[in-house]
Amino acid sequence: MSQKILLDKINIPGIKTYEVYRQNGGYASVEKALKTLTPDEVVEEVKTSGLRGRGGAGFPAGMKWSFIDKKSGKPRHLVCNADESEPGTFKDRYLMEFIPHLLIEGMITSSYALGANLSYIYIRGEYMWVFKILERAIAEAKAAGFLGKNILGSGFDLELHVHCGAGAYICGEETALIESLEGKRGNPRIKPPFPAVSGLWANPTVVNNVETIAAVPWIVNNSGADYAKIGIGRSTGTKLISASGHIKNPGVYEIELGLSVYEFMNSDEYLGGMSSDRPLKAFVPGGSSVPVLPAHLIYKTAAGEDRLMSYESLSDGGFATGSMLGSGGFIVYNDTSCIVRNTWNFSRFYHHESCGQCTPCREGTGWMEKVLHRIENGHGREEDIDLLLSIQSKIEGNTICPLGDAAAWPVAAAIRHFRDEFEYHIRFPEKIKKRDHFVAEPFEKVKHLVSKETV
Ligand SMILES: Cc1cc2nc3c(=O)[nH]c(=O)nc-3n(C[C@H](O)[C@H](O)[C@H](O)COP(=O)(O)O)c2cc1C
Ligand code: SF4
Hints:
Blueprint: H1 18-23, H2 28-36, H3 39-49, H4 61-66, E1 77-82, H5 91-98, H6 100-114, E2 118-123, H7 128-143, E3 159-164, H8 174-181, E4 205-209, H9 210-221, H10 224-229, E5 231-232, E6 235-236, E7 238-245, E8 251-256, H11 261-266, E9 280-284, E10 293-294, H12 311-314, H13 318-321, E11 329-334, H14 339-353, H15 359-376, H16 384-395, H17 403-427, H18 429-432, H19 437-440, H20 443-446
Parallel strand pairs: 1-2, 1-4, 2-3, 7-11
Antiparallel strand pairs: 5-6, 7-8, 9-10, 9-11
Helix pairs in contact: 2-6, 2-9, 3-6, 5-6, 6-9, 14-15, 14-17, 15-16, 15-17, 16-17
């Protein structure tokens, strides 16, 4: 059984309330930090822990904190990214909904470390009921003296606000989020300058994911060194995984990094295996932005090693045979799923969510959606597959923010691993016009038709 440090108390009745949270050891990290540690000592503990940002990119949190400009004398801010709009990812919502004070505690301790006296939680607009839960938790923490002026007599002041987005995925990108928080349209900024130097209102700002901030209380209460003992190699600690798709037990799980993908998929403690006797076809380990992998690369890497739930193992083999841990949105597909349809669906999302500032992303996401739509609907042409590869390669690396890459990678990966399925769609349009094509006839059974000679 994996050690739990974020969700260990989630089933305690009443844990959503300040009283019960406090009775169960809540806010101890604030007391410890403010009374016994300097801000720099807290930063050092987080550095030692090896905690990596849980929003997707996996950048070391302590290192990011150490970049914040403390010399300019400008006010500093901590902004929690609770925008969580990546398809397949719903773990931040779970944490905030069921144990909101853990995030508030993490925000106070982390703000102290950064010297931030005005911090924000930016939450996606569709999470309105969670917004209300957080507002209540903040009011409770304030009434108990953990927010406001001179917290616990330490001289440290902190105001914390929750700000609601309006339902745009791009506002999860940290500089778009900052623009939105400033009341502007959520367009990503050109970097540098990075937020650590010039962020919210041109002040030094750290943006961290909900789960990253929620891990800080445990690190401060125990130690960075103890946190680093959990997990494997540079993938330290635990990770929340949002699991969905054709599995027995979908939901949010806290796992120790380094757990094997096989155990995560098949043990009753976690996903419990496939939801029916239809076989595993593919999986996306880290949300819609990361490459999809076919069945033979799920449990083993191309080098024949066990595939583990860690940053390194999931990306083993690069994009040729690997993927990414990303935000931990673990989506499982059985053989009734159509990879072309799934790729079109993701493309539709990225096209819709592109902010439109960069031509390759604005135009390219639209073209990819259009071409994928015609292939999926039986109007594809042989040259469309290479056309898709050409479009995605022109987006990748040529845009202001990583949404362009996020739109390009899934298309490239789907063609890399499932090219014959695209060819099948193009060569047998009458077979795929029925929307349940692979339910009636799994691709494995019709695959032999794909060769050009048999058309
Ligand atoms: C299009 C796009 C959407 C993003 N959405 C989120 C999000 O919903 N939540 C999040 O924490 N990070 C998101 N990110 C990553 C953030 O830009 C940023 O790296 C992250 O909030 C940093 O926190 P971390 O270091 O704790 O992971 C997104 C990035 C991009 C490009
Ligand atoms: S890559 Fe797309 S979403 Fe990001 S800034 Fe450019 S147009 Fe906007």
